[in-house]
Amino acid sequence: MAVSGSPTLQQIVAEFGGPGNLKAYARGGAYVPNVAQNGNISTDPNALALSQFANAVRYVPLSATASSPSGSASNKGTYTVGTSFCAISGGNGNVTYSLSFVSGTQFNNSVAGNQATFTAVNTNSTPTSSRGIYRWTVSDGTSSATADFTVSWN
Q1: Quick one: which of 85, 91, 123, 149 could link to 68 by a disulfide (CB 3.0–4.6 Å)?
Q2: Mind listing the pLDDT tens digit for each residue in 39-50?
Q3: What are the helix and strand counts (H, E) for the chain?
Q4: What is the rounded CA–CA span in Å between residue 32 and residue 12?
Q5: Is 45 left (phi over 0), alpha (psi -120 to 50) or beta?
């Protein structure tokens, strides 16, 4: 909402598409997304004020970043390489995460929500260097985003 001062209730209704009751517009509720741009808006319906809605936004497209795990070992065995975490911003809060292999070495992995843990198996005492590229895809039903990362084993 391109209002630098206090918007009117009618402007808030027009932006967020809800009823004409200010208490319906708590951040993280049905109409106002819980995103950084709306950080001034209270999550408590009883603490809302029109001035909190200056420069508020109805929707911010998703963006995603991912960490790249790496590990090493010199003995035979199965080892945890590390965990990749997918962090998002924007969206409507109703996010699904999926992980896909892109190229290189494919590692065993287990996924739980926005994190994936990778394991490597050393079959001899002189391990080889391995790298695999993976992709997180996140979606909230309105937009989606991807974040590629590298899993490294030395």
Answers
A1: 149
A2: 999 999 999 999
A3: 1, 8
A4: 10
A5: alpha
Residues written for the chain: 154
Q: Which amino acid is located at 134 in the chain?
A: Y
* Sequence-distant (≥ 6) Cβ neighbours of residue 65 within 8 angstroms: 86, 87, 147
> For the chain, which ranges sit under pLDDT 70?
2, 127
pLDDT 10s digits, 82-98: 999 999 988 878 899 99
Q: Where are the alpha helices (DSSP H) in the chain?
A: 9-16
Helix (H, G, I), strand (E, B), or coil: what is residue 82? Answer: strand
The order of strands in the sheet holding 77-89 is: 63-66, 77-89, 115-122, 108-112
